[in-house]
Write a structure and sequence with these properties.
The structure holds two protein chains of two kinds. Chain A has one domain: ABC transporter involved in vitamin B12 uptake, BtuC. Helix content of chain A is about 75%, strand content about 0%. The longest helix of chain B is centred in the C-terminal third of the chain and has 18 residues. In chain B, strand 1 and strand 2 form a beta hairpin. Classes of the chains: A mainly alpha, B alpha/beta.
Chain lengths: ~350, ~260
């Protein structure tokens, strides 16, 4: 079977074009039709909808999608397994648990002091980091990280976190319960710019730093020892990757809740299109992740208009079957592809 | 080029190796022979710096190996391990090119290296193939090519742990001829773990015999590869039959000694 793929430049151009198109549609679509004057008059009704609701929401979707897809691709290289994803190894669950914990135990206080846009991402990051480190430590064997143990440990940590979330919900009052449940379903509706600003501050360094590791990630795929013999400081690379993944996913979870499957299927589709080379995979995944997320957000507003579906439900509804079909395809073809 | 003085490893039950001295010379090919579990891979791991010796010192080109940064070390030493896990659909050319990571090779030089190795290892028709679709022997040849791309621009150390285990006879000879040519032409010091006594006697300049966690003998190939020594090492009667070229062939037809 020849390894024929599209050239990285072609794929990048197509993705950027599609992203611009879908973003334009997404800005325009909604209960209110926006004209050109919305752009020129930020204080008018249309302008407020555009600048306070749709634009931040678009940017939130873009950044969340890019972060989820890129950290997914990085996690797959880190664990040398194309089916790894931060959500499978407990990052999202740990992040969610600590966010719900804060919401239930100190939500009112945070809201009162307007600290939630800063404290919640921080808590999500720390929770995600803690659970990742726990999973990695538990699945480390003498010969490196065992992927089977890793996924099983991730499942156990996920289950523990979910039951923890359940207990917290049980303890919470009706308003917090509603807020936490809605947030857990995944939702990118933005009210104002604060979440967007925080996410930009997190996303740019995370995405740029991860994209720089592409070459070394390729070598990591040869095995930890072999990468070391090629001159890669594997331990330091692994540490950087775990930190960046926890930070990126933590920030998304803090503002978007649980949005699953993006990190799994987006890198996979990119590999099918232009091969597994991480020097391109990470940036292409960021673009396709952003596109996928904007599209999902658009659909979530269109399908049950004028109400909206939590976007996490939609990504799981699309991503789940896509993931299953990739899995079945891999099994049928002897596990030999992508 | 690579010197081990009193190097030993005594941590862990399975990876013990008694103290040994060893000197790999540029332009020479040293073969390592020994039964399973004798410590051959431990030897490679120690010499490559993957495993830290519990005693003794290793010097690469006169400098302590532990003083090298990982990247510097990779520019002077290239190593092939037994297991090559790779579960992603890179093209064969991409896999081979990964070996150039620590070197600052200009692209035309890298292409030239890849072409030469592809020719020598019969990989030319496979370069654009998906690595995951290769047979075991083809994948091993691709990995060997990757390791050989990494050889330094100045004479360096090449350590190969069973690089021919999945290859057919023709490809074994081809690979060994290529490795010997590279070593002699560019002055690299090669150490390779082998299981085939006849390949070792034909291609190696020096031979090391390893048994039960100790380096039992080392020297020039003709001195070391005596049927009585090999029989004792492998615990089966091994005989040598004379051939026209004077090298002889080793065979063993008997069941192991009780």
């Amino acid at each position: 079977m020849p390894a024929t793929h599209l050239s990285p430049v072609t794929v990048r151009l197509i993705l950027i074009a599609a992203l611009v198109l879908v973003s334009a549609i997404s800005l325009n679509y909604g209960a209110l039709d926006l004209g050109a004057q919305a752009w020129l008059n930020p204080q008018g009704d249309q302008g407020r909808v555009l600048y306070q609701l749709r634009l931040p929401r678009l940017l939130l979707s873009l950044l969340a999608g890019a972060l989820l897809a890129t950290t997914g691709a990085a996690a797959q290289a880190l664990f040398r397994n194309p089916l790894a994803d931060p959500s499978l190894i407990g990052v999202s669950a740990g992040a969610s648990l600590s966010v719900v914990g804060l919401m239930v135990l100190a939500g009112g206080w945070l809201l009162e002091h307007r600290l939630d846009p800063v404290i919640l991402p921080l808590a999500a990051f720390l929770g995600g980091l803690a659970s990742t480190l726990l999973v990695v430590r538990l699945s480390r064997t003498l010969s490196g990280i065992s992927v089977t143990t890793l996924l099983l440990t991730g499942m156990a940590i996920n289950a523990i976190a979910i039951s923890g979330i359940g207990a917290l919900k049980y303890l919470s009052d009706a308003d917090t319960l509603r807020e936490a449940s809605f947030w857990l379903l995944g939702n990118l509706s933005a009210d104002g710019w604060m979440p967007v600003l925080v996410l930009i501050v997190v996303a740019f360094p995370v995405l740029m730093l991860l994209a720089r590791e592409g070459h070394e990630l390729n070598l990591l795929l040869l095995g930890v020892s072999q990468a070391q013999l090629l001159g890669v400081d594997v331990q330091s690379l692994q540490r950087r990757l775990v930190l960046l993944c926890a930070l990126g996913v933590g920030a998304v979870v803090a503002f978007g809740g649980l949005i699953s499957f993006v990190g799994l299927i987006v890198p996979h589709l990119i590999r099918l299109l232009c091969g597994p080379d991480n020097r391109y995979l990470l940036t292409h995944s960021a673009l396709l992740g952003a596109l996928f997320m904007v599209l999902a957000d658009l659909l979530s507003r269109m399908l049950v208009s004028p109400a909206e579906l939590p976007v996490g439900i939609l990504t799981a509804l699309i991503g789940g079957p896509v993931f299953l079909s990739i899995l079945v395809y891999r099994l049928r073809s002897g596990g030999v592809d992508a | 080029m690579l010197e081990a003085i009193g190097v030993a490893h005594d941590r862990g039950a399975s990876r013990r190796l008694e103290a040994f001295d060893l000197r790999l010379k540029g332009g020479e090919l040293s073969g390592v022979l020994g039964p399973n579990g004798a410590g051959k891979s431990t030897l490679v791991a120690l010499l490559s710096g993957l495993l830290e010796p519990s005693a003794g010192e290793l010097r690469l080109k006169g400098l302590l190996l532990s003083r090298y940064t990982l990247r510097e070390r990779a520019r002077h030493m290239t190593v092939m391990l037994q297991r090559q896990p790779l579960d992603f659909a890179f093209s064969v050319r991409d896999v081979i090119a990964m070996g150039s990571y620590p070197l600052d090779l200009p692209l035309p030089d890298l292409d030239r290296r890849i072409e030469e190795l592809a020719q020598g290892l019969d990989l030319e028709h496979l370069l654009s193939r998906n690595y995951l679709s290769l047979s075991g022997g083809e994948a091993q040849r691709a990995q060997l090519a990757r390791v050989l791309v990494q050889r330094g621009c100045s004479p360096s150390v090449i350590l190969l742990d069973e690089p021919l285990s999945a290859l057919d006879l023709r490809h074994q000879h081809q690979a060994l001829a290529l490795i010997r040519t590279l070593a002699q032409r560019e002055g690299h010091a090669v150490l390779m773990v082998l299981h085939d006594l006849n390949l070792a006697s034909r291609y190696a300049d020096a031979v090391l015999l390893l048994g039960k966690g100790a380096l039992v003998e080392q020297g020039r190939t003709a001195e070391v590869m005596q049927p009585n020594k090999l029989s004792a090492l492998f615990e089966v009667p091994i005989e040598r039959y004379q051939t026209g070229d004077g090298l002889g062939v080793f065979t063993s037809n008997a069941a192991p000694r009780a």
